[in-house]
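Q&A log
Question type: sequence-to-structure
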Amino acid sequence: MAETTKKIALIGAPLEEGSGRRGAAMGPAALRIAGIDTMLAELGHDVTDEGDVRPLPARDLANYPGANNLQIVAAFTRELDAAVHDAARAGRFPLILGGDHALAMGTVSGMARYAAEQNRPLFVLWLDAHADFNSPATSPSGNMHGMPVAFYCGEAEFAPILDRNRPLVDPKRVYQVGIRSVDPREREEINEHGVNVYDMRAIDEIGVAPIMREILAEVRAQNGLLHVSFDVDFLDPDIAPGVGTTVPGGATFREGHLIMEMLCDSGLVSSLDLVELNPFLDDRGKSARILVEMTASLFGRRIFDRPTRSA
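Response status: OK
Response body:
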């Protein structure tokens, strides 16, 4: 059982329009079917399922070249910004069930507002194969799930999706781990803005534990809040195939669990995204179950707590 009982708000975000392909909208349902609420309750946490946000398209916004499906992505961004902010202010831990990674435009923005109200800096741990620091001006595809980091850092202000004067995340407080697919122009933007990137070579050379100790020490030193955004494609596709953006050479099962266990031990995590799960591409729910297992490690389950399952 986790050392500290948390009040957890499950917030479903059935967004797939940011990804350019269908299926991720089924992600929240798949995570619920895989038992994420039951698992958290068994670990002693107080869990409330808020259901799914289902906003109408933001018709006040005109279509914008290079920002595919802007109106629906913007609507989810606004809804999630409010839902996450309100949950955090009510003393609950926002756990967002995705949905493609464009949803982080709203979730991180909501936590940035809450952190500003607490007079604390917000850090983001981005567990992903992709840097997602594009904008409509730099994106090769125009798919907005490649733009959330640039957006919540204030570097993708191409449309009035949220208030321009909202609290932003300092790019130097964004830590990207597991990166292995970056567009050429995106690489320049990341370097220019000082995003901290630990690609798979860094993981191979340094190891997960030293990287995580360095990140957590910085968050603790600045009395920060930590938002974790976990993309299925952070893991190697042999482990978790249910994602539309597979990139070979990802993190192993144990590396994923070690990160989540160290996050749990730190007590610094204030919110969590689970994103890019596409059940249509999965193997009999394998990826959904893996995500639930990873989440269990973040909320207090230890290896010796895991039952042996028949094949």
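Response note: The chain has ten helices and eight strands.
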